[in-house]
Amino acid sequence: MPHLILASGSPWRRQLLDRLGIPYAWESPDIDETPRPGEAPEALVHRLALTKAERLADRFPAHLIVGSDQVALFEGEILGKPGDAATARANLARFSGQRVRFLTGLALLDTGHGRHRVCHERYDVVFRQLSEDEIARYVEREQPLDSAGSFRMEGLGIALFERLEGDDPNTLIGLPLIRLCKMLREAGLDPLGDRASPE
């Protein structure tokens, strides 16, 4: 059994983690992602990322478990997954010509030592001016109904943007690899190491 577990069913997060070349297993945790009343966006993504990792802790008692969650912020509103095409189109119409901020929470739970690290990364997207037809065609083609922000950066979503601003573009897809590599090294699993087990 690999010592690294990804607490996510997202194929996009798995593709990102694959890039590190570390053997891992994955499982999708079932959690309630509803924000709590008055919960700050940063606190929300921290809580959800850690909750995803903790949901698998009993099944993987001597592992490093990675949890991640993302929200979009626009005009003071927290936006999760649109869920349906009409909401996705409405979101993209609001975003046209505007800046949208994404917060991605990242947690690394060390079940063998009973400790964890949690952080978040910020990434901004500036949308170009989008026509109704462009928005409709995009939503029809990619069906981004399960993606915060109503687009998929790893697909045709790139055609919606004027520019991207942030430290790690992987953050926008949902797994900040630069920060994750740092957290893994601190936990004793170096992506550039000899694949020794975490201490």
TrEMBL record:
It is found in: Cytoplasm. Keywords: Cytoplasm, Hydrolase, Nucleotide metabolism. Its main location: cytoplasm. It catalyses: N(7)-methyl-GTP + H2O = N(7)-methyl-GMP + diphosphate + H(+). GO terms for biological process: nucleotide metabolic process. Pfam families: Maf (PF02545). Its EC number is 3.6.1.-. It is an enzyme of class 3 (hydrolase). The record marks 12, 70, 154 as: Important for substrate specificity. One of its GO terms (cellular component) is cytoplasm. It comes from the Bacteria. GO terms for molecular function: nucleoside triphosphate diphosphatase activity. Its cofactor is a divalent metal cation. The active site is at residue 69. Belongs to the Maf family. YceF subfamily. Nucleoside triphosphate pyrophosphatase that hydrolyzes 7-methyl-GTP (m(7)GTP). May have a dual role in cell division arrest and in preventing the incorporation of modified nucleotides into cellular nucleic acids. NCBIfam families: maf. HAMAP family: Maf. This is 7-methyl-GTP pyrophosphatase. The lineage of its organism: Bacteria, Pseudomonadati, Pseudomonadota, Gammaproteobacteria, Oceanospirillales.
